[in-house]
Amino acid sequence: MRIDAAKTILILGGTAEASVLAGDLSKKPELRVITSLAGRTSSPLAIAGEVRKGGFGGVEGLASYLAAEKIDLLIDATHPFASQISANAVKAARLASIRLEQIERPPWQAQNNDNWQSVPSLEVAAMALPVGARTFLALGRQHLEAFFGRDDVHFVVRMVDPPKNPLPFKQYELMVAHAGKDETSETALFKSHDLTHLVCRNSGGKRGLAKLAAARILGIQVIMIERPVAVIIAD
Ligand code: NAP
Q1: Does residue 130's CB lie within 6 angstroms of at least one atom of ligand 1?
Q2: 118, 226 Cβ separation under 8 angstroms
Q3: Can you say how many angstroms the Cα of residue 141 is from the centroid of all Cα atoms in its chain?
Q4: Count of Cβ atoms closer than 10 Å to residue 27 Cβ
Q5: Is the CB of residue 33 below 6 angstroms from any atom belonging to ligand 1?
């Protein structure tokens, strides 16, 4: 990534990569480094440099912020499924005439012995589950709606923040926890729930790899929701 000539950098964050980058760039005393978070997580981990929270108010809001703070390099290090803010970043950088760099995690690839079905959306993932499947949903609360109504499936749901209300599933178990740290713990967990299916999004990165290894070891079918294709429509 070209940092040369930049003095004030805005990192669109919310990912581990963004936090590591903020830590690295903040060590350079000549730079002002600001990380922007959407503000969805109740207690985000500490980030080096300045941190701002909350939406900008669309493309124009982001472009105004870039101008007001005299940002000269915008780095989009958001999650691969955060497509709205990434599209906004492209347009706002163009409006404000500043350079945009994008950091994208490579997606996971199926390995030998993996049993993956790639699907384009949450809705197709929900339809792909057979009757009676014992299914682990590695998805946040905001992504569960497509699975409501599958009363013929038993769900084990893991999420970081507890839901405000009970989930409207007929048969489910809830785990409030982060992803398991290694394949041994994930394998033990999946085995204890007698799982047949795992549903997750192809986020990439190291953190979610353990669950995929566990599925491989146990012969569990993975319904892999692939990334949205970025379509930027010029104004
Ligand atoms: P999104 O759908 O692409 O963005 C929706 C709106 O949220 C944006 O238009 C923007 O509001 C605001 N926003 C998003 N990211 C922002 C940021 N870094 N700083 C300031 N405002 C931001 O995003 P999302 O999928 O809801 O994800 C929100 C954040 O969580 C992202 O920063 C992402 O890196 C992180 N995250 C997302 C996922 C995921 O699965 N999508 C997973 C892990 C972490 P305005 O239009 O008002 O500016």
Answers
A1: no
A2: yes
A3: 13
A4: 10
A5: no
Q: Kindly tell me if the per-residue pLDDT of 6 is higher than 80.
A: no
What are 140's two structure tokens?
Answer: 């946040």
Compute the distance from residue 38 Cα to the ligand 1 centre, in Å.
5
Whether the CB-CB separation of 129 and 154 falls below 8 Å is answered with no
DSSP string, 97-115: T-EEEE--PPPP---TT--
Residues 84-123 pLDDT 10s: 999 999 999 999 999 999 998 999 999 999 999 999 999 9
3 state SS of 79: coil
Q: What's the pLDDT score for residue 140?
A: 86
In angstroms, the CA 153 to CA 68 distance is 51
Distance CA 13, CA 17 (A): 8
Is 79 close to ligand 1, i.e. is its CB under 6 Å away? yes
Q: Which tokens go with 219?
A: 């012969």
- Using a 6 Å cutoff on CB, does residue 81 contact ligand 1? yes
The predicted structure's pLDDT at residue 235: 60
Could you report how far apart the first and last alpha carbons of the chain are, in Å? Answer: 28
Mean pLDDT of 52-80: 97
The proportion of the chain whose per-residue pLDDT surpasses 90, expressed as a percent, equals 81
- Single out the residue of 177, 102, 97 nearest to residue 136, CA to CA: 177
